Amino acid sequence: MFADRARIFIRAGKGGDGHVSFRREKYVPDGGPDGGDGGKGGDVIFVVDEGLNTLTDFRHITKYRAQDGEPGGKRNCHGANGADVVLKVPPGTVIKDSETGKVILDMADKKEPVILLKGGRGGRGNRNYVTSTMQAPKYAQPGQPAKELIVDLELKCIADVGLVGFPSVGKSTFLARVTNARPKIAEYHFTTLTPNLGVVDLGEHNGFVIADIPGIIEGAAEGVGLGLEFLRHIERTKVIIHIVDAASIDGRDPVNDVKIINEELKKYNKDIESRPTVIAANKIDALDEVGYETVIEMLKEEFEKDGVKIFPISAVSGKGISELLWYVNDLVKNAPDDVVEFEPEVDLDFHDNPDLPFEVSYNEEDDVYVIEGPRIERMLGYTNLESEKGFEFFQKFLKTNGILDQLEALGIGEGDTVRMYGLEFDYYK
C-alpha cells in the first residue's frame, strides 16, 4: 500500500544528571568535590534516503526514542552520551507539528542529516561549582529535560512536471507512453490510486521527471474523492500538463473540466495558479475531422489568450506527443532550478514555560540573593551562557519574568552577589 502520510512520536534523550561526590582517600582527608558531568542525551536525526518512495515503515512503528545520557560519576567520571535515533525518509518529506499543522522541517533538498530534536545537555557535577567562598558544593546540575513531539510526516513528490485531469482522461496511458513508468490502466474511474513517477528522456541531456497526480475532481480541495490525498504532490512541480478528453467519450466537456480543476488547484494553493501550464487534448484519434476542429478551436479560444498552449495528442497512437514533450522540456529548463521548499513555521528551540514556579530570596548568612525553582533549572538546562546569544536570552529571561523587579524589591544593590544553582554573578543595573 502506498503511504504518503504518517503520524509519529519522537523523543530526544534526556541529559544525564551531574553527580555530587567528594574525593575520599586514605591520605587525603579533605579531598575536594569530584562529581562528574552527566552525558548528553541522544538526538533525533532525519536523513533522506533516495531509495525510499513511501512512508510505509512509519505506519508500523510510530514511536522513536533516542537514548538518555548517563549520569556523571565520582572521581570526575563523565557519563556516557546517549545514542542517537536516525529516521530515514524519502525525498520530499515534510515534517509538521501535529497539533498546529505548521511546517517544522522540509526534507526536499537536504543532502546532509538534520537534527530535529537535540538531546538534553548533561548536567554539571559539583566539581564545577567550587568558588572562593564555596569549597564544598553539595549540589549538581540536573540533566536537561528530554524534548518530545508528535509530528506528521507528509510526502510531497519531487517532480518537474505534474499531470492533472479528471479520471479516465488518459493520464496513465500518456505516462506509460512517454516514460518507463508502468501504471495500472483500466476502463474505470480512479484506476490510479498512487502518484506515479516517470522520467521523460529526450536525449542529449534533455528530459524531466513527470508525476501523474490522481484523484482530482470537483470538490477535491475540500476533500471530495481522493483529491485531498494527492493534491499535495503537485506543490513542488514546475510545470503542469492538463490532460482532457477531447473526444468527450464519457460525455465530459473538456473546457469545463479545465476550469473545474484549475479552480480546485487554486483553492488548494493559490501559488499553483502561476505555474506554466499546457493543455493536452487527448484521444483525438477518436474524433472525426469536424469534431477535431471544433474542440481544438474551442480550447484555443478559451485558454490561449491566457498564454496556455493547446496540444492535440493521442496517448494511444503517440500522435502530437513529441511536440508537447519538447515544449514542456523548454518550460522546465526556463523554470527556477531550486526545488520548491516549504519554510519552517515552528521554532523548536527553548520556549519558557510560565506554569513552572520559581522563587527569589535573600540569604542573610551568605549575603547572596538566591534564584531557584523548576523554571530556573529548566532555563539553565536549555541555555548556553557561554555563548553571546545564550547570554542575551538569559538577560531577557530575567527581565521578562520579573526576576529583576523582585531582586530590586528585596533591596539588591550594585555589585551584590546573585546565585543560581551554583552559578554566581555580580548584579549591575
Automatic annotation (TrEMBL):
Alphabetical GO biological process terms: ribosome biogenesis
One MF term in the entry's GO annotations: GTPase activity
Q: What class of enzyme is it?
A: hydrolase
Necessary cofactors: Mg(2+)
> In which residues is GTP bound?
165-172, 190-194, 212-215, 282-285, 314-316
UniProt domain OBG-type G: residue ranges: 159-333
Task: Give the enzyme's EC designation.
Answer: 3.6.5.-
Domain named OCT: residues: 350-429
User: According to its UniProt record, what is one Pfam family this protein matches?
Assistant: DUF1967
GO CC, one annotated term: cytoplasm
Keywords, in A-Z order:
Cytoplasm, GTP-binding, Hydrolase, Magnesium, Metal-binding, Nucleotide-binding
Domain Obg per the UniProt entry, residue ranges = 1-158
Oligomer and partners: Monomer.
- UniProt family annotation: Belongs to the TRAFAC class OBG-HflX-like GTPase superfamily. OBG GTPase family.
- NCBIfam families membership: Obg_CgtA, Obg_CgtA_exten, PRK12296.1, PRK12297.1, PRK12299.1
Q: What is this protein called?
A: GTPase Obg
Q: Its gene?
A: obgE
